[in-house]
Amino acid sequence: VNQSKLDLFCKLGYGKQDICKVLENLGPEALEDDVLKELIRMGSKPQALENQAQPSPLKLVARGSCSTTPGLKRLGEDESDSSDSLRPIVIDGSNVAMSHGNKEVFSCWGIQLAVDWFRQRGHTYIKVFVPLWRKEPPRQESPIADQHILEELEKQSILVYTPSRKVKGKRVVCYDDRYIVKVAYEKDGVIVSNDHYRDLQNENPEWKWFIEQRLLMYSFVNNRFMPPDDPLGRHGPTLDNFLSKKPVLPEKKLQSCPYGKKCTYGNKCKFYHPERLRQAQLSVADELRAKTKVLSTLGKEEERCNCS
């Protein structure tokens, strides 16, 4: 085999075995063009072209950035962390709808307002429970407004119908409150309702604690869903901490002393003194001694000046 031709086509990227076969068939005196034509006819390709021909896995890069795949992975993790840090939401659909309809009409728009409020906050797990018989056409004794909203929420896998059926013309309805509390308890989420579920609290002591600690009440003000800023009372957590799995402790804000510079408590004062930041925290007696020393030194200096 001609070594020079072998080296030449190896540098071009062709396989050594293919080159040896062609040179054996054509002979050592074959021209380089003939060898190249034979390699092409055999279907042999340079390794660089083979690599280009193979489709490389697509790498999705965020628009406006040139980040690598690990960076995108971190971004995805951050987004999942932000959604995972928020508690699952379980909405008592009947309670919310009747509350929005002033306890006269089952207003499905009220359910939509509540769902939109939690969506805007970033909650990904939102479930609404409504009895199945609310799918039926509205009657005079049970009017329903904006019934099409229930269908839309069901398509989005947000709304869940609790079972109900008719036996000899009578409607048999499963207790939807038990579904609501059970799912919220298993998901370690929050129940959105103005109902206290006292019967279920007496039924299960674990549910009793959960309902007391995870019940989020609300109001509708001018078609605006408004939960309280302090769901568990004045001394309880804020709404943000109540709805998040990892509550953020607020920074203690020091209240400034009402007496200011006239305060006589010294270092025993529990209030904030901005004028004492650069001073050592002295007791009242030490402060008085320091003042008397300053005054005495000033008096001695004045006497010396007068004598001179």
Describe the structure.
The structure is a single chain. The chain has 308 residues and is an alpha/beta fold. The protein has 3 domains: 40 residues; 161 residues, Rossmann fold; 50 residues, no CATH class. It has 13 helices and 11 strands. The strands form 4 sheets. Strands 5-3-1-8-9 form a 5-stranded parallel sheet, sandwiched between helices. It has a two-stranded parallel ribbon with strand order 2-4. β6 and β7 form a beta hairpin. α2 packs across α3 and α6 packs across α7. The chain is flat. It starts with a helix and ends with a helix. About 11% of the residues have low confidence. One of its GO terms (molecular function) is RNA endonuclease activity. Pfam families: RNase_Zc3h12a (PF11977), UBA_6 (PF18039). InterPro entries: Rege-1_UBA-like, RNase_Zc3h12_NYN, ZC3H12/N4BP1_RNase_Reg, Znf_CCCH. Its cofactor is Mg(2+). One of its GO terms (cellular component) is cytoplasmic ribonucleoprotein granule.
How is the topology of this model organized?
Elements: H1 3-11, H2 16-26, H3 32-42, H4 47-53, H5 69-84, E1 89-92, H6 93-100, E2 106-107, H7 108-121, E3 126-131, E4 144-145, H8 148-155, E5 159-162, E6 164-167, E7 170-173, H9 176-187, E8 190-192, H10 198-203, H11 205-214, E9 215-216, E10 219-220, E11 225-226, H12 239-242, H13 284-307
Parallel strand pairs: 1-3, 1-8, 2-4, 3-5, 8-9
Antiparallel strand pairs: 6-7, 10-11
Give the structure's gist in a few sentences.
With 308 residues, the protein is α/β, with parallel strands linked by helices. The chain has helices spanning 3-11, 16-26, 32-42, 47-53, 69-84, 93-100, 108-121, 148-155, 176-187, 198-203, 205-214, 239-242, 284-307; strands at 89-92, 106-107, 126-131, 144-145, 159-162, 164-167, 170-173, 190-192, 215-216, 219-220, 225-226. It has 3 domains: 3-42; 83-243, Rossmann fold; 253-302, no CATH class.
